[in-house]
Amino acid sequence: MKRTYFLVVILGLFLVFTNYDSLKDNFSRVILKNPVQPALAETTEPVETTVSHSFPEFYRGIYLNIASARNMKKLKKFVSDAKRSNINAFVLDAQSSRYKKCIVPAENVKYLLDNEIHPIARVVVFPMGLKYYPVSEKLLKQKLLIAESACIAGFKEIQFDYIRFNDSSRNRHLSLKKRYAFIEGFLARARKYLEKYNVKIAADIFGRIPLNKRDIIGQRMEGLDKVVDVICPMAYPSHYTWSKKLQHNPYKTVYITSKRANDRTKSAEIVTYIQAFKMKLGPNSYPHYISQQIKAVHDAGVRGYIFWNARQDYRIPFQVAKKYYDKAGKISRGERKSQEEAI
Questions:
Q1: pLDDT digit string (tens) for 147-168?
Q2: Contacts of 236 (CB under 8 A, 6+ apart)
């Protein structure tokens, strides 16, 4: 009996080992056919929208960070508040430092589109500005892939932020000509790379750029005008530290920045970032500070504005915007009357 049992065990082991390669091959085929997908893979799958998209005639936007962009509950709350306040565009962070692609779910982008909110993906190119030059081709390709995955997720505009050199004496060996060529060259490359998605390409710039020339950060109006569709001057009056008059006069600061940006471009549209946070307001109340910036953008004749608040506290800005416009998105009679009385 023991001898018979022993022979059965030997025969079983022989069959297992002789079929090992076959079993391994079958297992490999199953894994390759149904690979384990990374948790964020679904964010780059395109989702069809139920409405056709058109770009805003006049941008009235807000900025949201990646946490709000990914969280549908938070996003819905912002959309609800925005629609009551005549806001029609959202700038969403497309990625965090941990990921090399857009991590905003396509469903979230679709929700914006279905609610007639223009979705703009913000892609940070060189955090705090480019400090070390030359730049690896690998890094540049990563930024292009992030932008491309945002297009696939449904974004209609890609906004490149921190697309500049560090605002310091770093890279002092590099001429202005080479700085301009590098910054503009990357944006031209991005525009070409993404043209099949029919999206707009935007670039954020320092507020001082429309007011000066030969800037060490490598941004200039005339050069950017040739390589992007939208230029976004960050005209936060509190950041014009060389002039207290500009800091305390939100209308003048935003007006001259927007107007000169517009005057120095032939093709690109100007959408100005305006200050939606309490910092160095001077003698102005916060609501007045915001309304004066909105008025300045309109008076400058540019394409619109985007509220910036890093904490995403838009309670007062929403209230001001709601009062400023009627239901059709036009300047309200009450606002026009108050402006006339102020004059």
A1: 999 999 999 999 999 999 999 9
A2: 207, 273, 274, 275, 279, 308
Specify the pLDDT at position 166: 96
Record the tokens describing residue 244, joined without a space.
Answer: 């207290």
Nearest CA among 244, 343, 331 for reference residue 295: 331
Report the share of the chain in percent with pLDDT over 70.
83
- Give the separation between CA 72 and CA 234, rounded to whole angstroms: 28
Dihedral Cα 147, 113, 273, 289, nearest 10 deg? -160
CA–CA separation, 307 and 274 (whole Å): 5
Residue 308, amino acid: W
Residue 164: CB partners within 8 Å, gap ≥ 6? 126, 129, 130, 183, 205, 206, 217, 218, 219
Q: What is the CATH number of domain 41-342?
A: 3.20.20.80
- The residue count for the chain: 343
Q: How far apart are CA 137 and CA 141, in angstroms?
A: 6
Q: Which helix (H) or strand (E) holds 124?
A: strand 118-124
| Amino acid identity at 7 | L
Alpha-carbon span 213 to 186, nearest angstrom? 20
Query: Are the C-beta atoms of residues 189 and 229 closer than 8 Å to each other?
Result: no
Return all residues near 67 (Cβ < 8 A) that are at least 6 apart: 74
Closest Cα to residue 305, out of 230, 239, 242?
230
For the entire predicted model, the pTM comes to 0.84
Q: Which two tokens stand for residue 124?
A: 């940070």
